[in-house]
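Per reviewer request, we include the raw input and output of the structure prediction for the construct analysed in the revised manuscript.
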Amino acid sequence: MSIESQRNVAATIGVPVARRHIFLCCYQEKPKCCDWERSVVAWNFLKLRLKELKLSEQGGVLRTKANCLRICEGGPIAVVYPEGAWYGQCDPPVLERIIQEHLVDGRIVEDFLITAHGLNP
């Protein structure tokens, strides 16, 4: 794959218009923070809701499944950038709040926040 081809893919998935990026711990090789099945349900919910709300692709929100986010309890774990907000207990009801309150409205969801540490460019 050429760099130009990769740039085209990046444009297609919405990298140039992204305002936020959510990573979700799922499909773990060795599940520790939650059951494997629970993480898959959470991922499928996140993916579907972002599509339904037209937030994925060119909608300004990128999503990435991570094998492990290294907080190996109280999962599924998610982190949202650029705010660097780390969330626990990210089952579908919590993900819905993160989507609506944080990804859409820009407010950190304090009820499920583990910690926040934004990365400065």
